[in-house]
Design brief:
This protein is of the alpha/beta class. 42% of the residues lie in helices and 14% in strands. The strands form 2 sheets. Strands 3-4-5-6-7-8-9-10 form an 8-stranded parallel beta barrel, surrounded by 5 helices. A two-stranded antiparallel ribbon has the order 1-2. Helix 5 links the parallel strand 7 and strand 8. The chain binds NADP nicotinamide-adenine-dinucleotide phosphate.
């Protein structure tokens, strides 16, 4: 596993970490999910990303069980939903997350999506308070557009050359098929020696189901290194300085492959081949409102109903 050591902060982060979106949604999968995370820890993927939103808090309980006897060796990240963006609500939300994970702090706490319900100064004030209270060692944001990130970085006092301690974290989609971050957000994070957490590196699983020239190039690069297309796809964003890739896997075989991809070093020629096979959209990441909680509740309710019907008919 290769590691990232951002600035002088004393952090050592594996370039491949573990995501948990979708974990905790079915109690029958709880044991498998805990075991998958723990296998990932054994293989070096000791950074885990969760959120109060995932599984309506149940994902954090899965994480809590996985880290119960190894908390000190894990870099733990959670995210606060924007409806809790006000400083007091942020603190309450994080305290509830900590209770679910049975720990007294997270290593990084991020605001999950931008919101216009609070001015950036207030959001930064809330994040700084989490840090000052020791509930979060580091703070950051997720899915923020360029202009809002600039303001947040300034409000947190983390501009290049003027950083008052701490590392800025920004979580964004980054994969072969979604390279919008390369335009402005990645340079912005690099500028303050921060960490970009690359989410959905396999396009939530879709990337590997694609056919066509992009996939042919991916298979070609993978073949030359004797690795799987998934491993080559994870090694692509991991090749960027300042990037930690968040890969989600509930299957032990996938966990094993993903951890091994942390040792893969793609050559400049491989990277160029992949860049030209997967064209980058000229669009930057703009401001968009998060999918509503109502949407997630409906989807989550629908999935649970299908699962319980499936269980009933199978029994
Ligand atoms: N901040 C945000 O708004 C945001 C948004 C999306 C995601 N995220 C974070 O980023 C994490 C990763 O993104 P994601 O969950 O969207 O999806 P992803 O990691 O791009 O893809 C996950 C899917 O790929 C499969 N997979 C994993 N490893 C594989 C391998 N080696 N070979 C073949 N298939 C493999 C998984 O299957 P199995 O599970 O069956 O193993 C799962 O279906 C999330 O879990 C979450 O922590 C954050």
């Amino acid at each position: 596993m290769r590691y990232l050591e951002p600035s002088e902060a004393g952090l050592r982060l594996p370039v491949i970490g573990q995501g948990t979106w979708g974990f905790g949604e079915d109690p029958r999968r709880h044991k498998q999910e805990v075991e998958a995370l723990r296998r990932g820890f054994e293989l070096g993927m000791t950074l885990v990303d969760t959120a109060e939103l995932y599984g309506a808090g149940e994902s954090e309980r899965v994480v809590g069980d996985a880290i119960a006897d190894c908390r000190a060796s894990i870099f733990l990240i959670t995210k606060i939903w924007p409806s809790h963006a006000e400083p007091d609500a942020m603190r309450r939300a994080l305290e509830a997350s900590l209770r679910r994970m049975r720990t007294d702090h997270v290593d990084a706490c991020l605001l999950h999506w931008p919101t216009k319900s609070q001015p950036i100064q207030r959001i930064a004030q809330g994040l700084r308070a989490l840090k000052d209270s020791g509930l979060a060692r580091e703070v950051g944001v997720s899915n923020f557009p360029t202009a809002m990130v600039r303001e947040t970085i300034e409000a947190l006092g983390m501009q290049a050359g003027r950083r008052q301690g701490g590392v800025f974290f920004h979580e964004l989609p980054y994969s072969l098929e979604d390279r919008r971050v390369e335009l402005t957000l990645l340079p912005q994070v690099k500028d303050v020696e921060g960490v970009l957490l690359a989410y959905s590196p396999l396009g939530h699983g879709r990337l590997l189901r694609h056919q066509g020239p992009g996939f042919d190039a991916l298979r070609g690069v993978a073949g030359r290194h004797g690795i799987s297309p998934a491993q080559a796809a994870l090694a692509f964003p991991a090749a960027e300085e300042g990037v930690v890739v968040l890969a989600k896997a509930a299957t032990k075989g996938h966990v094993q492959e993903n951890a091994e991809s942390g040792d893969v070093v793609l050559s400049p020629e491989d990277l160029d081949r992949l860049r030209s096979a997967f064209l980058r959209s000229a669009k930057d990441i703009g401001f968009s409102l998060p999918p509503s909680q109502a949407f997630f509740s409906l989807a989550y309710g629908g999935i649970s109903l299908m699962q319980s019907l499936h269980g009933r008919y199978r029994a």
